[in-house]
Specification:
By secondary structure, this protein is of the alpha/beta class. The protein has helices at residues 51-61, 76-87, 152-165, 180-184, 196-201, 206-217, 257-270, 275-289, 302-310, and strands spanning 13-18, 22-29, 43-49, 66-73, 95-98, 105-111, 117-122, 142-147, 168-173, 189-192, 221-225, 231-235, 238-242. 31% of the residues lie in helices and 25% in strands.
Length: 312
Amino acid sequence: MQFPFKLRDDAETDVAGFGTNAVDFLIQVPHYPEFNSKVELTEYAQAAGGEIATTTVGLRRLGLTASYIGRFGTDPAGDLGMTSLRDEGVDLRFAERIDGADTQIAFIVIDERNGERTVIWKRDKRLRYTEDEAPVAAIENAKVLHITPHDTRACIRLARAARELGTIVSIDVDNVVDDIEELLGLVDVIVASAEFPSRLLGISNKRQALTEMHRRFGSSVVGVTLGEAGSLLLCDGEFIETPGFEVPGGCKDTTGAGDSFRVGLLYGLLTGECIEESARMANGVAALKCRSVGARTALPTRNELDSLLKKK
């Protein structure tokens, strides 16, 4: 089945990403600590992350063009975050640094037995965009706008502008926030965490929930990521259930796996692949990402992705 979209032929940038960036403090432990206990860490690392920033890096590694729209502080973490994107070739013309603000950070505790993680994060309020501050000019040359709903009113303004331009709107969503239903009504591709449909609709059955999301919001593609089990998408009344891949060498860290899934799905969309193959790519990118600690460390090249896809 083909994606029911026509890509803009007057846009040079494949994906403009609007949303979060972060610097992650990654702490590996032999097992997740019990309440009121102590545990000696195994390893510790600092690395750039954040949902949208990570997705733009993943797209660049696969050979597409990507721009990042977002705000950094004027602290050392901001230096690290911007340099990490610039080094990957992500367009930063519409990235900003806010004087006196702290760049978003996350402390991530990783259970080394299985790579599962717990994220503890903080975002400075001064990094927020209001609706009036939404940088509409940043999406005028983009085929796809990919967002997280952290600044929902600004996202709504950008999504409306994208619709007028013929730009496809994609969202990475896992929590219910103010005005989320208004925003989802402007989105073409909704890929959510496994828990989001139940949180939003109170429907635990995932197929029923996706059907209701399509009915309510009119999005052409709706889906959920299912961790190591893969993914479930709905398009044109047909469910596409795609199994996950085993992580080569074993799972070291699931941080950023969902962001990586969006990388593969958008890559398939932008390169003319069918939905089924795009979902395979998405699960493949997510699995390869989990090879190493950090959201971006092991994001694959196209050759690495092709090698994995040929094995299954």
